[in-house]
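=== Structural record ===
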Amino acid sequence: SCASVKPLAREAPRYNTTDGAPRSFTSIGSDGTQDAPLERGRTQDVSRPGGPRRRHRRAAGRRCAHRPRGAGGHRRAIKNYGVTTFTDRDVVLKRSTSIWLTGLAVLLHQGADAAKAGSNFFISALAFVMAMPVIEALGCDKAKCVPFIPLLLVLGKLKRAGKLSPWVGPAISCFFGVKGYVSPSQNLREFGMSGELSPFGVMFAKLEASCLLAFGAYLTALALDASPSTAFGAAYAVLAAAALLAGIVDAGAAGMSKAPMFIWAALASGIAYAALGE
């Protein structure tokens, strides 16, 4: 993390007295008089404003500029999965999955009436705004992603006005969900990302796509005039299936324990079963 960057070595001051011996002082006045000496063991380069401390801040900033803010918590979460070797791109994908999972939670919390009024489009637009640092960190072309924000806002406004088919939302969510789940690396390369994803990155890119599929399942159930509890259960059934497949197929290749994915699948299955049973 940024906090682990080692401080740069401090340069010794180069102020010479009349006898040629270098000394360290807090400052030197314009008349050449010396202020009180520094504490033992401390030096200060007063020849350059800020000295090595400012240079250290600049160096630390350059080293951490490629990491989006808030990445530290996701690094700890990945380590909690038992993964010891991962890349910055893996951390970014973990964060992106959290953004869309949060969006799904907001959609489900608002309820069926809000979803029928187009809240899914507004939530997706907000998720895109929150994901912009992630998109930049992945090396994707923001020019290909930003147009989705006004498009989603327009669709949301049309849906709220009753001028949009209820099948538009499910179609968009399912299309991008299937596309991202079946070929996660190719999907991101179409948005400008270079290189390949690691096995851990592939797993979380699939989990992110499963959030869109859960969006689609929820909206599809509502478009079929299913009850709100049935739509809620359908969304969680998709999440349960995605977590189960992640544990069976992807967790081993990613170098992590399968237990977290199986626990996630069990919890989501229980919620889905309870909702569908109402």
In short: Residues 228-254 form the longest helix (27 residues).
